[in-house]
Amino acid sequence: MTSKPEYQRIIDFVVSNIESGGFKAGDKIPSENELAQEFDVARMTANRAIKELVHRGVLHRVKGSGSFVSNQHYDQTLVQISSISDLVRSKGAHYAAKVMQLDTLYCDPSLAESFGLAEGSPVYFAEIVHFEDRLPIQLERRWVNASLAQGFLDQDFSTKTTTEFLMEVAPLSRVEYRIAAATPDREIKAALDLGEMEPVLRLRRKTWSFSGVVTEVDLYHPGSRFSFSGYNDFSIGDKSGFQQGR
Q1: pLDDT in tens, 63-74
Q2: Burial (0-12, 13-18, 19+ Cβ within 10 Å), 106
Q3: Domain 6-69 has CATH 1.10.10.10
Q4: pLDDT at position 74, please?
Q5: One-character DSSP codes across 42-100
Q6: Residue 221: φ, ψ to 5°
Q7: In 3-state terms, what secondary structure has residue 208?
Q8: pLDDT tens per residue, range 215-236
Q9: Pairing of strands 135-145, 122-132
Q10: 181-219 b/e (C-beta count within 10 Å ≥ 16 → b)
């Protein structure tokens, strides 16, 4: 297993100080030069760490003044994050889930880059089929940062969704997502009991907590039995696209 990237050590330092109260909202953090000297790295490495923390919303920059800790009260995202079990039950239907796989994997180069982890770092993987009145309506394939979700493998995800668990252990700070129609492979067809020519809707989502990327997930839905909807209320912030499963 390779060592943690140098810029990640700086990210961990800043986040740890915020979580412990060493850095409070509005506090100025050390400059890039100071961080580079402290961690014995190039300034560009410190710059990358600061940029990532700004991108996550943990810090904000003031031109000519430096980088400051943001107020840690965030609107969830541009999407409403809800558990699919809540959606099914809100319709008066029976919810059930079948866990197909629950295991520990180790980061290949692509997964390591996506999570900001060293190659070989452990990540959890879950594949779960979700049902509404015995009809499969979602196939979930999820990768989870093991360092931010301790106890994940000990959960009974036939009774408690991964979304519910992750919301408890890793507060949400940012989400990226994409929804598209897709042609299912044989395994997806079987899991969702699809017709021969039936397409699926795939939601691909990446979720951050303040400490880093928590999870990446592909959610597949039968095109004939599922749709996305939402609303906009600009008085409280855009809440577009009702999504199932964090």
Answers
A1: 778 898 886 543
A2: middle
A3: yes
A4: 38
A5: -HHHHHHHHHHHHHHTSEEEETTTEEEEPPS-----SSEEE-HHHHHHHTTPPEEEEEE
A6: -130, 140
A7: strand
A8: 999 999 998 877 766 554 444 3
A9: antiparallel
A10: eeebeeebbebbebeeeeebbbbbbbbbbbbbbbbbbbb
Range(s) within the chain of domains with CATH label 1.10.10.10: 6-69
**pLDDT for 78:** 37
Q: What is the pLDDT of residues 92-135, one digit of tens each?
A: 899 999 999 999 999 999 999 999 999 999 999 999 999 999 99
Residue 170 identity (one-letter amino acid):
A
Q: Which one, of 62, 17, 19, lies nearest residue 35 by Cα?
A: 17
| CATH number for domain 80-244, candidates 3.40.1410.10, 3.40.50.300, 3.90.230.10, 3.40.50.360 | 3.40.1410.10
CB 25 within 8 A of CB 69: yes
Write down the pLDDT at residue 232: 46
